[in-house]
Specification:
The protein is of the alpha+beta class and 198 residues long. The chain is built from 4 helices and 5 strands, in the order ββββαβααα. Helices cover 68% and strands 17% of the residues. The radius of gyration is 46 Å and the shape is rod-shaped.
């Protein structure tokens, strides 16, 4: 029986979540498996991988063949390196302590890279948020300036209308004053013409 280390899909449509399992190569993708080794969630950034390293290495020692994606995940978590170092220990190329030290150093370096990526993502997210806030402030300032300019324009129009009304009232008053003496003179002229006739 050939054993494969592969992914078994779970989760909902559009949001996959995988179990990392050791299963018979002839079984269905989501069917019967021999042992669950961990989980893989690609929905987060960076992807969340939870792997039982010792069990995965034990299955690799027993001859299980990982699929391409499972091989990438095992490499990312250090299972393939541990398998390789254990082979060196069995051949006598290095001691178990040396192998453990190399594995620990590699895991520390990998953890540093992952935290650097998380920090970079968080920093870029904060920068994008600050940029959006700055753009929003600029838009709000433009709106406020436009509102104050509109209010000033309305005040200027109101003042202009008031001055136009005042000037028209003054003109009407002046025209009325000019017409009144002319109408008073006309009756006086009529009176003088009546006196001359009499």
């Amino acid at each position: 029986m050939s054993v494969k280390i592969r992914l078994q899909r779970h989760g909902k449509k559009g949001k996959p979540f995988y179990w990392i399992v050791a299963a018979d190569a002839r079984s269905k993708r989501d069917g019967k498996f021999l042992e669950k080794l961990g989980t893989y969630n690609p929905n987060t950034n960076p992807a969340t991988i939870d792997l039982n390293l010792d069990q995965a290495v034990q299955w690799l020692h027993n001859g299980a063949q990982p699929t391409d994606t499972a091989r990438a995940i095992l490499s990312y978590k250090g299972a393939l390196l541990k398998h390789h170092l254990d082979g060196g220990v069995r051949k006598g190329a290095l001691t178990q302590e040396q192998a453990d030290a190399k594995l620990a150093a590699w895991l520390d370096e990998k953890a540093g890279k992952v935290t650097a990526k998380k920090d970079g993502l968080a920093k870029s997210k904060e920068e994008a948020k600050a940029k959006a806030l700055k753009a929003e402030k600029e838009v709000n300032e433009k709106r406020a300036n436009a509102a104050t300019e509109a209010a000033k324009a309305e005040e200027a129009e109101a003042v202009a209308e008031e001055t136009v009304e005042e000037t028209t009232e003054e003109v009407v008053v002046e025209v009325a004053n000019e017409e009144i003496p002319a109408t008073e003179e006309a009756p006086a002229a009529e009176e003088t013409s009546e006196e001359t006739e009499a």
